[in-house]
Amino acid sequence: MEENDWNNYGNFNNAIFLPQAYQVIKTRILQISLGMYTMFVLGVFLWIIHGWNVQDYNLIGANAITFVFAIIILSYKIKYK
Q1: Cα–Cα distance measured from residue 8 to residue 51, given in angstroms and rounded to the nearest whole number
Q2: What is the mean pLDDT of the chain?
Q3: How far is CA 24 from CA 27, 42, 43, 46, 49, in A?
């Protein structure tokens, strides 16, 4: 399996957050755990830092996309608690 194949799988996983972020923005209904989502966003951020340290731009890009959608969901969770 080539490196580009793995990058495409990472982007597929990132796409999972798009419908969730859209639903949260549209309905402002969040039935998620604040603690779990905070830890998830922190974990994704740490993967971005790790990607930066090892200069793996695919890792940085994939996690940056997830981070953006996850931080939107987390901010709505905090704002509309």
Answers
A1: 17
A2: 82
A3: 5, 20, 21, 24, 27
Residue for token pair 């740490």: 46
4 falls in which pLDDT band (50, 70, 90)? low
Higher pLDDT, 37 or 21: 37
Element of type H or E holding 36? helix 34-53
What size, in residues, is the chain? 81
Count how many Cα atoms sit within 13 Å of the Cα of residue 29 in the half-sphere of its side chain.
2
Q: CB within 8 A of 64, min separation 6: which ones? A: 48
Rounded to the nearest 10°, the torsion over CA 67, 71, 73, 75 is 180
**34-53 and 57-79 are packed helices; what angle lies between their axes, rounded to 10 degrees?**
160
